[in-house]
Amino acid sequence: MPRLASRGVILVYETASEALILKDPEPAREYEAGNDWWQNLGNSVSSTPNIADVEAIWRRFESQGIVSPGQSLDFTKAWISRFDIAPENQLYVTGQARGKTIALLPLKRVRRFGVDVLTWFAGSHVGCNAPLIDREMFAKLSVLERINVWQQMQRGLFGADLVYLHGVPVFEGEDYFAQLGRFVSQDYLYRAVFDNWQECAAKQHTRSRRKHDRQQGAKLAAMGKVEFVELSGKDAGLDQALETMFKQKAARFKQWGVENPFAEQKVREFYGDLIKGDNELKGKLHVLRLDGQIIAVRYNLAHQKTMFSLISSMSEREELKPGSPGKQNVFNSIKHAFNANYTAYDMGAGYSDEKRHWCNKIIPLRTHYVPLSAKGESVTRLHRTKSLAQKAIKDNDRLFSWFKYVRGFVFRGL
């Protein structure tokens, strides 16, 4: 329900659907009365712990394009296999409208601090994630129909206190998830979307940027033979490149004073499984070498016309810094992707100079909450407050710099 200000009549709605129904009661009454046109839509929901039960519909949705590797069936299967997720901790909820299955929520069940949570399988290992939907059908639904779809699907969510959906994108003209629970603004997703490299270079590779890249490239070339290669499948040197990438990331996380998300052996093995697997999500490792030594790596997963860049690393060797191996590798990686007929290069969530330079699409991300119990309701309110505070800190350069300093100080135990 909306919160009322102590003076005046200012309503603050928790959800978009709540705002619609309470601000305009006539459509709500029509919706609740169940007119003939609504009754004949064929709305229903089903839940299963067996991924095989939803494989056909998952493949159909995936064939329409995905916004994240987390929406890939092969990605999810590899995650389940490597982390031994039991069937009782998996839940797949499908929603129907107008007699057709139009949405799928694939979730895992975890327990955190005494709270049972349903959430994405890969968590923060992907830049964003979202329910899989039939986009053509969703575009035809009214707002009230979408409300009904998500409310029906909530009835299929069980065995948890809370559904926590991190990193849900808000695409322009396609805000199909606004009626899914409550949400709070989180971050931004960065993408370069162009028909080819020439268009990307013309719009993003400015004169000053070209000058910097040439200068840094020349400095790197003066140190030895520079080589950019793409590795995948069973290519020679793939295992060495993966190992080097994770070592470089570990060194960088230690320097930043943050926890290493790749520290667990199973996590590193999962990424190895995925890039070597023969599936619809194609693994592409972009490697920059200097005299045969790996100095920068980008771990990419490609699906249809989109390349998702999940991990980037570079050497911490001081003498290499004038040549900026990380920037040289991202330049070569993006150029290679667009020359290979990809039309989107996804650089993930979170701001960086490289994302600002290369990305022409900045997509808002939200965290959605669906409380399923009184405990889940309490956790939702606490976590939303925390998320709002974190975003306020990130949006303030001085506060964020101070926060990173304190975080590193605590992490290193200085």
Automatic annotation (TrEMBL):
Pfam families: Acetyltransf_6 (PF13480). Residues 207-356 form the BioF2-like acetyltransferase domain. This is BioF2-like acetyltransferase domain-containing protein. It comes from hydrothermal vent metagenome.
